[in-house]
Amino acid sequence: MKEEHKIMASVTLLIASIGAADAIIDKAFFQKGTIHDLWLYDLLAFAVILLVFGYVITRLGGKRRAAEELARKQARAIESSMDGISIYSPENSYVFANEAYASMNGYDSPAEIIGKSYALMYDEKERARMGQTCMPHLLKSRKWRGELLATRKNGSTYVQEASVTMLEDNSRICIVRDISWRKRGEARLQRSERFLNTIFDSIRDPFCIFDRDYRIIRVNDAYAHMKNLPLKDLLGNKCHEVLYNRTAVCDNCVVQKSLQSADPCAKDKLVTLPNGEHVWFEIYTYPILDEDGKVSHIIEYTRDITDRKKSENDKRRMIDKLEYLSRTDSLTGLMNRRALTDSLLYELDRSRRYDSDLSLILCDIDDFKKINDAYGHDAGDRALQTLCATVTTVLRKTDIAGRYGGDEFMIILPETSVKGAETLAEKLLEALSRMDLDFLRGNKQTLSVSIGIAGVETKNETIDTLVKRADGAMYTSKQSGKSKASSARAV
Q1: Of 5, 6, 175, 470, whose CB neighbour count within 10 A is largest?
Q2: How far apart are CA 401 and CA 473, in angstroms?
């Protein structure tokens, strides 16, 4: 507003001066009235002009301020964006980068990037790939979107999801997002897919997997044959729609029961095959839980029981088998981490309720990496299996053992004091000392483990505190020479 006021004041003074001069000239040369009357007459005329000019100036100033405010908002939006935003010149050097772009690539500020070549972010191999795939498409359609492998300032790499737009002057706006976490998730999914493929190849009975929307996401040939539909017609469709031409879930749907209860379910069903034959099937459903403990998928397993209706005991065995697969380590046959955690939670609660002893043993193989490096992972697997077999020889019927992770094993000892746990640990060390592992080319080696022991000492004991103290004691054993057992006390 200050600039508009200055302009208006200057124009007003100018108009007043011109009016006065015009009045003097009219009086001097044309003898038209008094100077005062002529000046007032001219002033009124120029006032109209001033009002019009002022209105124009005000409107132009308002538009300029609105444009400036819009530009400031856009700049703040770009700077606050979580996505990295940069602009390349036609010569491939940075002319702009926001804070997110600099931070994403390991730089303290955009100033470290401005003026430098985009080659700063991509190695020679990736630039060559960009030249073959990105640039031709960008030159043709002026836009490109895809994935790039970027290199941070410290030399580490990450996967970008990039969107590039070419402007009129051939400069480019690039918006990137770090999707490394998503790529890791995709890699885990691929490993899970390979595992599922192995399961599916080994199953001859009808087998199907549903998601939470009742869509069929995986099915074997036996299931498709039972439903008399090709695989392509089943996959991706909701079961009640593709199988029964229904718009809603079927009555007494066993899949729905498992979704709602998060428990395994089973039912018998009489099915009429396409050839008119009536067949009894047992249908088992089992929930798969995600990291938050919510049901993400349902497994449906179908078995023909026409010759003889399965007894309740047979049904229980099937459910137990599915439970066993979900709670067992495939390499050692012992409990996996999930099952161990559940068991420890149960025993800890029982220890509080009955005020009974409870001890925990953690042990892992000393120099396990050296075994893998020297003799291969097959030898490492044999070492884990040997430790597993040895552990089971010293356990009592009430003891619970499992593979806690990697080369680390956990033993839960209900109604056992720390002293009793120390006795069992010594038996385990002694048993291992008498065993030699025969590796490649006659190389034999004694298996050594470090053991940590902790017992429940207070009513406020939790799984985390108990495991942490046992883990600390195991670390003490390793630091003091390995092949030892150490006990921890609550602080």
Answers
A1: 470
A2: 18
Exposed, middle or buried, 440 (CB in 10 Å: 0-12/13-18/19+)? exposed
What residue type is assigned to position 349 of the chain? D
Residue 297's DSSP bridge partners are 211, 288
CA-CA distance, 446 to 33, in Å (whole number)? 128
Are 152 and 254 in the same domain?
Answer: no
- C-alpha separations of 257 from 202, 262, 327 in Å: 27, 8, 22
Tell whether 189 is covered by a domain: no
Q: What does the longest C-alpha to C-alpha distance in the chain come to?
A: 136
The model's pTM is 0.40
437 forms bridges with which residues in the sheet? 445
Q: What is the pLDDT of residues 159-197, one digit of tens each?
A: 999 999 988 888 889 999 888 888 888 888 888 878 877
CB contact at 8 A, 390 and 431:
yes
Q: Which domain holds residue 147?
A: 84-182
* Same-domain status, 52 and 94: no
- Domain final position from 63, 79, 95: 79
As for how many domains the chain has, the answer is: 4
Cβ–Cβ under 8 Å, residues 292 and 276:
no
* Distance set, CA 111 to CA 107, 190, 193, 466 (Å): 9, 40, 45, 50
Q: Which two tokens stand for residue 271?
A: 């099915």
Residue ending a domain, choose from 54, 79, 104: 79
Q: Are residues 158 and 262 in the same domain?
A: no
Question: Of 181, 390, 203, 364, which is closest to residue 299 (Cα–Cα)?
Answer: 203
| pLDDT tens digit sequence for 61-86 | 555 565 555 545 545 555 667 788 88
35 by Cβ neighbours in 10 Å (0-12 / 13-18 / 19+) ranks as: middle
Same-domain pairing of 140 and 18: no
What tokens were used for 210? 């549903």
Q: Where are the alpha helices (DSSP H) in 203-270?
A: 221-227, 231-234, 239-244, 254-261
Supply 325's token pair.
């697969």
Number of H helices, E strands in the chain: 15, 17
Q: In what order do the strands lie in the sheet with 358-365?
A: 400-405, 408-414, 358-365, 449-455, 485-487
Quote the crossing angle between the two packed helices 463-479 and 337-354, to the nearest 10°. Answer: 110
The residue whose two tokens read 């985390």 is: 464
What is the rounded distance in angstroms from the CA atom of residue 475 to the CA atom of residue 491?
17
Q: What is the DSSP letter of 412?
A: E
Q: Would you say residue 7 lies in a domain?
A: yes
